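Bug: token stream looks shifted between consecutive jobs. Job 1:
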Amino acid sequence: MIALGVIAIGTMICARIIYNNLAEYNYRFIERKIILERHIGRANYSLVTIPLTNIRNVIQYNLLEGGKAVPNRHIFTNNRDRSQWYCIQYQDDGIDKSVIIEPDGGFLNSIYANLDIEK
């Protein structure tokens, strides 16, 4: 019995590691919305859709106040280098939420241009 439990736990850990290493994230602007997607193999999953009108702030992750915890955050990056991360703070149904992304320069410039936010 114990062996089956160990095998089940080992299988779940391996599946989680494989799942996280195979996932890639895609960020898009479509109809004044930012759409965050996860790609695994050929499968594509839309995870978060943020209307531009709901976005309150976009800030480099390292510049957040004193390393304070980000409320209701979801991380959509594969890279552990936090200097490349950006936090999009928005409101959804009256709840403050945040997503952490690692945008390329073009996507980041598009965010700033569409929101009139200073870099």
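Job 2, same session, no restart:
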Amino acid sequence: MINLVGYIHLPPEKQEELRSRAKHLRILSARLRATVLTLRYYRLFEWLRLVLPRDRIVKASGSIMGLSNIIPPNNSDIELAIGFRKEIEDYLDIKIPEKASKSNM
């Protein structure tokens, strides 16, 4: 669900862009979670440490979904959004560039 605080004051083009980004994040979250079920031999790859552990993928997927639910973030959601971002970085062992994260929020 898109956060409506401050959202209704945005131009229609910006509202549509934010809805599109939230939807895209949900799709990516679902695809990520599906990989642990649909990738043949995932458990073997996990045992060989070629892929991240299943539980980290599921948790990262949940954090991505959570982030999509607070787009656009209002002032009270900023800390929550930062927390989701940190969780995603930790679970997937990646670093999201600061510039990219600020321009996308």
